[in-house]
Amino acid sequence: MDKLEKYIVNNLSSLFFSMLLPLFTIASMVFLIRLSIATSVIQVSAFEMFKLYLFILPDIIFYTMPLTFFIAAALAMNKLSTDNEMVVLFSLGISPNLIIKTLSKPALFLSFLMLTNYLVIAPYTKTLSDNFIEQKKTNAHLNLSASEFGNKFGQWLVFIEENNPDGSYKNMVLFKKTDNEEVIISAKRAEIVNEKNILTLKLFKGKGYTYSKEKFSEIIFKEMDLNNRLDSEYIQYKSAFSYWKSEKRHKRKDNMLVVHTLLSLFPLFSIFLVASIGIVHSRHQKNMTYLFIFLGILGYYGATLTLQKIIGFYTIPIVTIAWLSITFFIYKKKILSRF
């Protein structure tokens, strides 16, 4: 029996790893496109893009491995059936339940790995990714380019004649318009100070003009400070438990717990369906494995995503009980009654 189980696992493994690479590549491209859209407002180098890719790597693994296992397991069973090896095994008195037992071991390991991935690893990498993007956005607020229109400092439109080598600015002009007045300020020199998430624009030797319907005023100053509090908010990571327990984005986290739990358990919960799809008698049954694989994925993922929006956490027990009951019934009628 050990040799038979090893033989089945070897067939499953060869298909699993051959399919994982193309699916992983496709998922990586999709996530990189999403990442490029999310970072379109900031400038990142090739190395920084690689760091962001490493941060989203747990998500890519999470979405590819359960699907790969389900497809590979069904095709492995189908290959053994079309080669008439399954018929030989059952003719020798081997029970189909041995196939279920053999497939359940790697499925259990993969489901445990996926649960660990999204419950423990993903919160840490998600926090790193969010903080990195916030830091880049903060730096973007500090990067004022000379001789370019479109620079902003809070509510102020900024134009700079020249960047000094020491990081300060030469001949800066600022403009702000409100419902009641317009303000324009010019300074011969300016510099930015960032302290405790408060940006201070220090202006030296300049003039300011305020115009409204009632009055026009002018000031001359040696030094002026303009403050602007950044909207960025860094997340402090303490533990995976603290991440899931915190109230920040609480609704989104609840949705993730429901959906990701069920998707993590998909390989284990679909063992009966894998056997029902893959085990066929090539002489007496039509081979519709690919269609049933598609319908199986559509049914499980569709039920999970749809019910989660309607009944929340109750989706987990309802989908679990319903899916196992339906797939075991199919397995009993299609496999156990025949073989």
Provide the helix percentage: 55-70%
Largest sheet: 6 strands, antiparallel
Q: Average pLDDT value?
A: 84
| Total helical elements | 10
- Rg of Cα set: 30 Å
Distance between the amino and carboxyl termini:
18 Å
Number of structural units classed as domains: 2
Number of strand segments: 6
Q: Unreliable runs, pLDDT <50, ≥5 residues?
A: none
Order of helices and strands: HHHHEEEEEEHHHHHH
Strand order of the biggest β-sheet: 1-2-3-4-5-6
Class from helix and strand fractions: alpha+beta
Percentage of residues in strands: 15-25%
Estimate the global geometry from the Cα principal axes. elongated
Can you walk me through this structure?
With 339 residues, the protein is an alpha+beta fold. The protein has helices at residues 2-38, 46-82, 85-91, 96-142, 240-245, 250-264, 266-269, 271-278, 289-311, 315-336, and strands spanning 151-153, 156-163, 169-177, 181-195, 198-212, 216-229. It has a six-stranded antiparallel beta sheet, with no helix packed on it. The longest helix has 47 residues, at 96-142.
